[in-house]
Amino acid sequence: MAGELEGSKPLSGLLSGLAQEAFHGHQGITEELLRSQLYPDVSLEEFRPFLAKMRGILKSIASADMDFNQLEAFLTAQTKKQGGITCDQAAVISKFWKSHKTKIRESLMNQSRWDSGLRGLSWRVDGKSQSRHSAQIHTPVAIMELEIGKSGQKQVRVAWAKIRVPFDHTLAGQEIVGIWISTSS
To answer: Where does the record place the COMM domain (predicted)?
Structure first.
């Protein structure tokens, strides 16, 4: 099997397919599609471990956002490891990463970016009228609510209350009592 998995073009295609599926969100790229198009002579039982190894290596490289020195050290360690990769495979992976690093990094950044915006903000100061402890009655409670979300989509409402807010404008004595999170459409 090792000879069947050695070609640089099929491995480059496999890495491209894995990147499209894992980092660019293309759902139609399946294990069977990759095997049938790139490694038709390799059985599914032999292909699965190879695919898992390449997927793991690619995800490790991408999640660490490896520069080229880190990549070389990582790939060298992979070639020396029992059941690792060959030097030819390491060369293909290195070439692939050098040409696709920027696109994969941008895709990962876009996936992790939060595009929601602040839709509303409201606040008020209430006076406590009941409490377990009589010393807390008539103490001010500041309540602030944030509405976060995109228009036309679900919104998240986050509210919290602070008690013991002094009127002398110092931050001493502030304490978060509770946080409420709810969603609405």
So the answer is: 117-185
CA atoms within 13 A on the CB side of 22: 21
H-type helices in 24-150, by residue range?
A: 31-38, 44-63, 68-80, 87-112
Mean pLDDT along residues 12-32: 92
Q: Which two tokens stand for residue 171?
A: 């931050």
pLDDT value at position 182? 59
Closest CA to 7 of 76, 62, 86, 84: 86
Residue 6's CB is within 10 A of a number of other CB atoms, namely: 13
Nearest Cα to Cα of residue 106 among 24, 49, 42: 24
As a residue count, the chain comes to 185
Give the DSSP H/E element, type plus range, for residue 117.
strand 117-127
Tell me the three state secondary structure of residue 53. Answer: helix
Question: Is the pLDDT reported for residue 110 higher than 50?
Answer: yes
Question: From the CB of residue 49, how many other CB atoms can be counted at a distance below 10 Å?
Answer: 11
Token match 């992790």: residue?
112
Neighbour count for residue 151 (Cβ, 10 Å):
7
